[in-house]
Amino acid sequence: MPEKNNYTAEDIQVLEGLQAVRKRPGMYIGTTDVAGFHHLVWEVVDNSIDEAMAGHCKNILIKIHKDGSLSVEDDGRGIPVEKHSKTGKSSLETVMTILHAGGKFGGGGYKVSGGLHGVGASVVNALSAYTKAEVFRDGKVYMQEYAQGKPLGELQTTGVSSQTGTRITFRPDPEIFGDTVEFNLQTIINRLRQQAYLTRGVTIAIIDERDNRKYRFYFEGGIASYISYLNKNREPLSQVIAVEKEVEEGYVEVALQYTGAFQENIFTFANNIHTPEGGMHLTGFRSALTRTINAYARKAGLLKEKDENLSADDVREGLTAIISVKVHDPQFEGQTKSKLGNQEMRAAVESVFSDFLTVFLEENPKDAQSIIGKCALAARARLAARAARDSVIRKGALEGMTLPGKLADCSSKDPSNSELYLVEGDSAGGSAKQGRNRDFQAILPLRGKILNVEQARLDRIVANNEIKSLIIAMGVGVGETFDISRLRYHRVVIMTDADVDGAHIRTLLLTLFFRYFRDLVEKGHIYIAQPPLYKITQNRKSAYAYTEEQKQLMLESDFDSSMKVNIQRYKGLGEMNPDQLWETTMDPVRRKMLKVTIEDAEQADMIFDTLMGSEVAPRKKFIQTHAKRVKNLDI
Ligand code: 0RA
Fold it and tell me: What domain range is 489 assigned to?
């Protein structure tokens, strides 16, 4: 036995472990930017969620403190504090300082062990300038503090308490994250709301002490409530259908509802971790859905003998679904380690869900009828779309279809350095054509308002002339024939006027890209041009301002305040001459372009539904709520 107060082999191992984390934080938390910074929060919250999933904790409270620290408090059993047989330290100190010593020693459970998740409290501790762990257990309060992962003293008893639970307070280390990153309340809210849906019955509260904002999430219905939330602006075609079952491989939960929308929205999770790349659980769900709906439709006579089967796409139109599985040893694969690889979950989800759906459809003939009616309509539209596409798109695209006449193409045939500008109207189109560098910049003028794709189906969308030109110019096809490798321009730039009409056309185009060309958005091919709002001229000196604030700043600091200045407000791109358009908006060296990203597909989706969908009330509410944030509104 090592002697007390001596530097033991264990101590050395601990220090080496902490050192490894500080030396290569990316290996443990992905990055050291804002994402990695918030990863610390998820790690600590995950431990409390685990305690809740095990049925021992009902409340979790997150506080963002004014001093740059954050605490996570739960009313679980409390991290054990007795001496740990292997390390000779308290279990608490072991959990807090030894790499990979997860909370649930030796126990089964669903503690995540793959990917970046579940690396635990010791990593957070190592990457924090200061950490305090408090445990409420056995009628006492225990406490230990750390700096950069090293204990500042022994475990102490600091008081008495009749409660049980754990509170971890940590302040991320500026040496690792820099000193400008802060906790973002909205990021934390979004994540915790999602966790509350996925962990039925737990209450998660958030207090931001920087401005005293408070939030509380509790969802009795779990993922079934999540479906209602996602569909709150859509027209429901069925009840929310939900099943959960413990199986040998783990735990399976599925909830879904059909709506009048044309798109599908499926979100999948494994051990509460979002798996946007899908995986085995999704595959199992999809095959069960198609098979079960077709079987029922045949049996009930809703599909006749001569009818083709409903396709996988048909049964997903208007579907909102959540698949959440728990698995003992999750394998995360794919480009972003967000695809569930566990083969056994395919059959598990497939059998749980198809057994349940079969019974549900038989017992609820009204729901069954409207679901199958919707799928059959989708099938008819698909056949119509195929016919339309065969005549207008596929034929052309595959046989070197002539590009639209209005497209002023570039001479480069290398997509990686080619740009396509989508310009509102012919007059701005004219300026852009003259101002561009024709080597690599192509211009496609769009006339008037393009179709609102949120309220139309693929067959009508491909028949719309403006959209047809756009699809042919991009070269990627649409729907079943979409192929990103055929993209003719790696930058597709939306260039609209800085007024309300311009904003509307931009939103319509973004909706189109989001709904039908989401891959282009996700791969970073869609951009928004930033034309200037003002030109300020004084004598022979002139400058462009892109925002109201910038104009103010320039007038105060760059121009002579006693002499006359001329301020030109650009209402539209057409008011700029070609040279001006080039130097302010199109020249790669001087322009400012925004890359469109989908940080949170779910949020973006909801905003699109709100703004573009058929329900008027939510749109009005959204605009009222956010009207103050819309700047440069020019009516
Ligand atoms: C291991 C065993 C027990 C509880 C925990 C870990 C535990 C860990 C964390 C981390 C955050 N909150 C937590 N709550 C509990 C249970 C020991 C027992 O009482 O049997």
Answer: 403-531+594-629
